[in-house]
Amino acid sequence: MTEILTMIFQYLLLIFLVVCALAVARTRDLLGAVIIFASYSLIMAIVWQQLEAPDVAITEAAIGAGVTSLLFIVVISKTRRME
């Protein structure tokens, strides 16, 4: 029973990763793209944890979701929005 639940969870994570990747590519709002990218990185950290690679998971969460998203938000705040 737990194997089936684990497989379902892994497939849900995979589907969410694909949806996030497509959403980042299709969105026109930069801040929205950064938020979707951060959620992609957090889900990827969960995938690495499921693959029993906790060091890679922590790095992905800290760098991928944390620092990179923060840098993107700072850069976006420095630009002017053109309508």
Task: From the structure above, extract its key features.
3 helices; mainly alpha; 83 residues
What is the string of helix and strand elements?
A: HHH
Low-confidence stretches: none
Q: How many domains make up the coordinates?
A: 1
Please outline the major beta sheet: none
Radius of gyration using CA atoms only: 15 Å
The overall strand count is 0
- Please indicate the percent range of residues in DSSP E strands (runs of 2 or more): under 5%
Our count of helices gives 3
The share of residues in helices is over 70%
Structural class: mainly alpha
Mean pLDDT: 92
Shape: elongated
Spatial separation of the terminal alpha carbons: 53 Å
Which helices and strands, and how do they pair?
Elements: H1 2-26, H2 30-50, H3 54-78
Helix pairs in contact: 1-2, 2-3
Describe what you observe in this structure:
The chain has 83 residues and is mostly helical. It contains three helices and no strands. It has helices at residues 2-26, 30-50, 54-78. It is elongated, with a radius of gyration of 15 Å. The mean pLDDT is 92.
